[in-house]
Automatic annotation (TrEMBL):
InterPro entries: AAA+_ATPase, ABC_transporter-like_ATP-bd, ABC_transporter_ATP-binding, DrrA1/2-like_C, P-loop_NTPase. Gene3D superfamilies: P-loop containing nucleotide triphosphate hydrolases. This is ABC-2 type transport system ATP-binding protein. Its main location: membrane. Pfam families: ABC_tran (PF00005), DrrA1-3_C (PF13732). Residues 5-235 form the ABC transporter domain.
Length: 307
């Protein structure tokens, strides 16, 4: 199957600053692809080039097989772009905003009316349909931004840090909407600085640093690359923890911040885990809590930063 997005040796230079450095990215059809990186990593530049809003300095991007420079109109037809919230007319209502977008896209009156109805239903905007944009909550506005991006029924929606500024409940609600939309067939390309957001949302992640992709894959496989899980034991007191650590063959070490706690980084190997648990079993009477944590995307970030 043609990849939805194929970026090859993509470079973007602003003056003397290399924002993207020979970057390769493949986004599969149907995915929720998250570009993760800190401020200035190049996320917006990458998304804007894919969206045909900027031209690469060298290298190329294809969307649905169309080159974003030489076949920009064809590529653009596959893409839905969410506007910045403050770009919407504050005095218009959601139905007017969606209808205006249909006009801007050259859709006929009947199709505009149908699409507006469908999108109001899809995002539960019914009770706000006649309210002014200025009066909507942040979360409802983001849903309206997303609805605007969907008016022309694009194959992929591109969202640059869409949940910045939302409160935690509105973010969770927005993630649910995005996942639902994706399950109904729309691919998503999203940028974020937030590891948790990437973990919750993504089917695939590209970690960007200084204009390069430093890791790419499904969240589970990125975590697997880090390998180690952490086994933590709380013991009945500091003396018990010190004795346990001193006698440990598996390699448990005392936690410098908690004298009654020992920790072990367990490699992704069943024998190593069995050995650690056997030691814990021998001291079971002294253990008040046992906790095994899978690696998190935070661990992936730390591991990548150390390279
Ligand atoms: N128009 C421009 N002119 C000059 N430099 C730019 C321009 N746009 C971006 N840059 C620089 O390119 C680098 C990448 O910027 P970009 O906005 O793509 O990063 P980002 O990962 O989206 O960051 P943020 O999370 O802060 O939005 C940054 O160092 C930025 O200062």
């Amino acid at each position: 199957m043609t990849p939805l997005v194929l970026a090859t040796a993509l470079t973007k230079t602003y003056g003397t600053h290399d924002a993207l450095r020979a970057l390769d990215v493949t986004v599969a059809q149907g995915s929720r692809f998250v570009v993760l990186g800190h401020n200035g990593a190049g996320k917006s530049t990458l998304l804007e080039i894919i969206a045909t809003l900027r031209t690469p300095t060298s290298g190329s991007v294809r969307v649905g097989g169309f080159d974003t420079v030489t076949q920009a109109r064809d590529a653009r037809r596959l893409i839905g772009l969410a506007p910045q919230s403050n770009a919407l007319d504050p005095l218009a209502s959601p139905t007017e905003v969606l209808d205006f977008q249909g006009v801007a896209l050259g859709l006929g009156r009947r199709r505009r009316a149908r699409r507006t109805r469908e999108l109001v239903d899809l995002f539960g905007l019914g009770e706000h349909r006649s309210a002014r944009v200025a009066k909507l909550s942040g979360g409802t506005r983001r849903k309206l931004d997303l609805a605007v991006a969907l008016v022309a029924e694009p194959a992929v929606v591109i969202l640059d840090e869409p949940t910045t500024g939302l409160d935690p409940l509105a973010r969770i609600d927005f993630w649910t909407e995005l996942t639902r939309l994706n399950q109904a067939g729309t691919s998503l390309l999203i940028s974020t600085q937030d590891l948790h957001e990437a973990d919750v949302l993504a089917t695939d992640i590209a970690v960007l640093r200084e204009g390069r992709v430093v890791a790419q894959g499904p969240p589970a496989s990125l975590k697997q690359r880090v390998g180690a899980r952490t086994l933590t034991l709380d013991l009945s007191g500091a003396a018990a923890a010190a004795a346990f650590a001193a006698a440990s063959e598996a390699g448990f070490r005392a936690d410098p911040d908690r004298p009654d706690r020992v920790r072990l980084s367990v490699p992704d190997d069943p024998r190593a885990l069995a050995k650690a648990l056997t030691e814990a079993g021998d001291a079971a009477a002294e253990i008040t809590r046992l906790h095994l944590a899978e690696p998190s995307l935070d661990d992936v970030f730390v591991a990548l930063a150390a390279r």
